[in-house]
From TrEMBL:
Domain VOC: 5-122, 141-254
Keywords: Aromatic hydrocarbons catabolism, Dioxygenase, Iron, Metal-binding, Oxidoreductase
Organism listed in the record: Amycolatopsis eburnea
Pfam families (alphabetical): Glyoxalase
Stated name of the protein: 2,3-dihydroxybiphenyl 1,2-dioxygenase
Known cofactor(s): Fe(2+)
């Protein structure tokens, strides 16, 4: 398959300092700074690669780019042709953009919602040695993202039919989970009136790492938007915090892997236990 994994997410944010404080003090993530045009960008190191989350200063909070790692240049060309055949205009990334991402090749297009989606070949495996404030393994990578949109059908067509993601499972009528590797899902698509990132999941090494992050979130008065719980479908144990841009960060571990013999199915309810929402849950099943 051409797309190997979720590589990075870029976000335009109005309060870089608040984001940095959340990442460093509560989540134990190391951050560095880099130039992007005239701006200084905050890069969050989640694993051994250069960055997984880029924070760009802005006058409004919104997604900037969603980056997927592609297996090879030939696969990038093949996916480019599939996108072109499906009516998407594909452009090359600039030299500066490739350098920031650590990519050898970079192309991008605009999805049906208006988000910039990038396909990158290559990653820069260069930890800059920033201190992990929390110690221990803590955050180990970028797990998945969930996009909410009124254009669910068009997004499903893009990811499933054009980019060749596989459907893992779903909750009828409006929540679908897709994978591009053995991880249960790298992206989920949900029906909603307004387009947004519902959440990003930061993968942690163990339940102890999740628990320590939970303690730090409470100690630092970080809004816990969804309490500790275990999901029904991927079996991950996690909790969610509300970040300074207004959407959720899921702090989780223990999601399952699936193989080619997996049969997509409706998994019925969201959670085995826990995951109580501090506010309204837009994906909750209607009460009977």
């Amino acid at each position: 398959m051409g797309i190997r994994k979720l590589g990075y997410v870029g976000i335009e944010v109005t309060d870089v300092d608040a984001w940095t404080d959340l990442l460093v003090r509560t989540l134990g993530v190391g951050v560095t700074h880099a130039k992007s045009g005239a701006d200084e960008v905050v890069l969050a190191e989640l694993d051994e690669f250069k960055y997984r989350l880029a924070l760009h200063p802005s006058t409004e909070d919104r997604p900037r780019e969603l980056g997927w790692i592609v297996d090879s240049p030939s696969e990038l060309d093949r996916l480019t042709q599939r996108l072109t055949d499906a009516g998407f205009a594909v452009a090359d990334g600039s030299t500066e953009e490739k350098e920031l991402r650590g990519a050898t090749r970079l192309r991008w297009f605009t999805d049906p919602v208006g988000y910039r989606v990038e396909l990158a070949v290559g990653e820069a495996k260069v930890r800059l040695g920033v201190e992990r404030p929390a110690g221990g393994p803590g955050v180990t990578g970028l797990g998945h993202l969930v996009l909410a949109s009124p254009k669910l059908g068009e997004l499903r067509e893009l990811y499933e039919s054009v980019l060749e993601f596989k459907l893992t499972d779903y909750r009828a009528p409006g929540l679908f989970f897709f994978r591009c590797n053995r991880t249960h899902h790298s992206i989920a698509l949900a029906n909603a009136e307004t387009a947004s990132i519902h959440h990003l999941e930061l993968e942690h090494g163990s339940i102890d790492d999740v628990g320590r992050a939970y303690d730090r979130a409470q100690a630092h008065d970080v809004p816990i938007s969804i309490s500790l719980g275990r999901h029904m479908n991927d079996k991950a144990i996690s909790f969610y915090v509300r970040n300074p841009s207004g959407f959720h960060l899921e702090i989780g571990c223990g999601g399952i892997e699936v193989g080619d013999d997996w049969v997509p199915h409706d998994f019925g309810r969201s959670d085995e236990w826990g995951h109580h929402h501090a506010d309204a849950n837009p994906f909750a099943a209607p009460k009977s």
